[in-house]
Amino acid sequence: MNNLPEVKIGIVAVSRDCFPESLSVNRRKALVEAYAKKYDAKDIYECPVCIVESEIHMVQALEDIKAAGCNALVVYLGNFGPEISESLLAKHFEGPKMIIAAEEESQNDLVQGRGDAYCGMLNASYNLQLRNVGGYYIPEYPVGDADDCADMIHDFLPIARAYVAVKDLKIISFGPRPNNFLACNAPIKQLYNLGIEIEENSELDLFEAFKKHEGDPRIAEVAADMAKELGDGNCKPEVLPKLAQYEITLLDWIEAHRGYKKYVTLTTKCWPAFQTQFGFVPCYVNSRLTGRGIPVSCEVDIYGTLSEFIGQAVSNDIVTLLDINNSVPKDMYKESIEGKYNYTHKDTFMGFHCGNTCSQKLTKGTMKYQMIMQEICRKK
Question: Coil, strand, or helix at residue 208?
Fold first, then answer.
């Protein structure tokens, strides 16, 4: 499943009319060449229609990068830049945008070759605030030569991917947060503020869908794939058909309920009644879906699955979610950390979670009983 967007960054150079336009033209060309040498040229698009000096140019540039399929923008100050037009360019572009500027190339060319883009960046920042422009990013030091600016654009790529992805995300949840899990409480208004849709369902809805998948002809194939993945770590082979049935249920639910959104994450109830009613715990299935680009948090941790999705978008890699769990024993600290890393004992903690981590991120994965669930069942 393709659960992340491809990002294409449009590079639009701007120029203040009292500076030579050639400064912005030549510096933009040098920037694009530098990026293509160091990184993948398909990430970027050089807007060729104009150097933006006016509001009319701004409209022309917006239309061009939209037609080129750009979903992210770099406003590049080749010289001081036109404060009004460049801030309007950022304001009217709906996706993520970064503003950066060209530095002067040489002490031998500080008359005709001086662009004052350093000063222009200060004015650009002020104008963006004046117009309440949102969704923009300015690097900590946003002025550089062609190579520096190419690096800035490459660093912006995962930020842009996360921004685009979250704006087109639906979170599907099953069940209320468990009792005594207020830390997982998720006021949904903040999700709406980010452009995220959320579909909240009950565990009964999920259980009904699961029961309807009994005898699904796909179960045997999925169970065989699970057995292959687990290898020697398959300590509960008898539960694989149920896990396969559950995985198919979730995947079918995603396709039937994604609506108008392109990307999906899940968060599900996993205990204490899950194992007694479904007959298993869902950790392994959660780990498999996360490995396929569909992060799944348990305990109906809505903001947890959002965090996983953002981490996946930024890293473009498989993620997991660990709790800040227990302290590091002093003997372990002395043996494994002290003198080897610049951390005090109070800087350390141990991260833990149940089995949601994908097997591709484990040195050795084993599927057997869930210790916490077994203890709960024993006490009952």
Answer: helix
